[in-house]
Amino acid sequence: MSDNHSSHTLHTLPTQAPTAPFALQRFSIAPMLDWTDRHCRYFHRLLSGQALLYTEMVTTGAIIHGKGDYLAYSNQEHPVALQLGGSDPAALAQCAKLAEARGYDEINLNVGCPSDRVQNGMFGACLMAQSTLVADCIKAMRDVVSIPVTVKTRIGIDEQDSYELLCDFVQTVAERGNCEVFTIHARKAWLSGLSPKENREIPPLDYPRVYQLKRDFPHLTIAINGGIKTLEEAKQHLQHLDGVMIGREAYQNPGMLAQVDRELFDGQAAVPDSVDIVRALYPYIEAELSKGTYLGHITRHILGIFQGIPGARQWRRHLSENAHKAGADVAVVEQALQHVIRPQQNSL
After folding, report:
1. Confidence of residue 288 (pLDDT cuts 50, 70, 90)
2. Helix residue ranges per DSSP H, 103-225
3. Residues that are catalytic
4. Residue 12 predicted with pLDDT over 70
5. Most C-beta atoms within 10 A of its C-beta, which of 29, 43, 168, 203?
């Protein structure tokens, strides 16, 4: 783990995990393949000091055999969890040890992704049908690390979607695997016939089933995921559950994250200004550009920050049209900012 930005003093980021009485999972941003990479997470941390951030799902094979550094992140991202994809207890344990050594705050096992590619590798949502194997995977990781090992799953798969089956799964993984934390995507997954995108939209949401799970397993930490679009909705869920995970909405409308610390953690917390957030990203951008990162790989994550604000469309267009050009740097972002900054104002 390396931190290449310690010489910059434009902003100070919290690096501690949320303090009691809140669970680490009280508010988290979902692991999203091709979206929640390290650039995205660094940006999201500027918006909220408390949200638990998740990596994209990383397979055990990539970590063990891949040529790249699949565990790279910045110190400022804490609290940050690594989501693993796999079903071999020994391989998962090996990766969990590596992740703990690198400083990750949590390991999460993916038991929810429904894609064909994932099923062929024997991990993801298809593992819901193999609760004993999932329990063995969790226990193998728990035996070698001291950080939390958690599960993200669905409420069911295919025709195996009764509440009793969900309870059996959770009970087996909790008791045999010694797992204490579950994030439940409140939809079942169809393992054939629906694409991953369709599996995020077509199966109906069943929030009451997740609430019931918490009532039946009060000793477990239960967080909910799926279709949650506002912090007001998050507050409603938190009346019944320990945590809320937001995915696509947090990515497409990241400005909402600026309110998380005040609304869900500390009523006195400051609400960062969106223009200031963008400018606080400049040292990171400059450091990344110096290492060969393309500007567009970072700015694609910040396109939605001004959603609903005058000039947002021009902001997005300017970045989309210019960030991929040769030599593009922070000047491109500053020029784009001028579309949302009104005259005589330095911030919104």
Report:
1. very high
2. 116-120, 131-142, 163-177, 196-199, 207-216
3. 113
4. no
5. 29
DSSP 107-128: EEEEE----HHHHHTT-SGGGG
Beta pairing, strands 80-85 & 243-246: unpaired
Residues shown for the chain: 348
What is the CB-side half-sphere exposure of residue 225 using CA atoms within 13 A? 25
CA distance 181 to 179: 6
CA distance 31 to 43: 15
- Report the amino acid identity of residue 223: A
Tokens of 232: 């007001």
CA distance 207 to 172: 22
Query: 335 and 314 in contact (C-beta within 8 Å)?
Result: no
Q: What does the pLDDT look like over 63-115, one tens digit per residue? A: 999 999 999 999 999 999 999 999 999 999 999 999 999 999 999 999 998 87
Q: pTM (2 decimals)?
A: 0.91
User: In the numeric block, which tokens belong to residue 234?
Assistant: 């998050």
Cis peptide upstream of residue 31 (ω within 30 degrees of 0): no
Is residue 258 helix, strand or coil?
helix
Q: Using CA atoms, how far apart are residues 293 and 210, in angstroms rounded to an integer?
A: 41
Residue position matching structure tokens 């009793």: 164
